[in-house]
């Protein structure tokens, strides 16, 4: 599964995508756990998960066909 990342997450991992092998489907909560194990530099990072351009909760199921993105909080003025 290819996961798009932005801002501070992109800076910390040095890439604009994360590639994870998660099988056919996974919950968002399980996805987060995989990310924190595979990318320990993201420990403590706060972000929301978007599935097909809509924010989703941890019990939502995502598949490799979905567009998934990690969106950190943004500030503006």
Automatic annotation (TrEMBL):
Keywords, alphabetical: Nucleotide-binding
Nucleotide-binding listed as a keyword: yes
SUPFAM superfamilies: MoaD/ThiS (SSF54285)
Pfam families: ThiS
Family note: Belongs to the MoaD family.
Protein name as it appears in the record: Molybdopterin synthase sulfur carrier subunit
Stored PANTHER family: MOLYBDOPTERIN SYNTHASE SULFUR CARRIER SUBUNIT
């Amino acid at each position: 599964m290819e996961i798009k990342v932005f801002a501070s997450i992109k800076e910390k991992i040095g890439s604009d995508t994360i590639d994870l092998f998660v099988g056919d489907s996974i919950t968002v909560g399980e996805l987060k756990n995989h990310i924190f194990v595979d990318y320990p530099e993201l420990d403590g990072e706060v972000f929301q998960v978007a599935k097909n351009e809509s924010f989703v909760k941890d019990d939502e199921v995502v598949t490799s066909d979905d567009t998934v993105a990690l969106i950190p909080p943004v500030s503006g003025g």
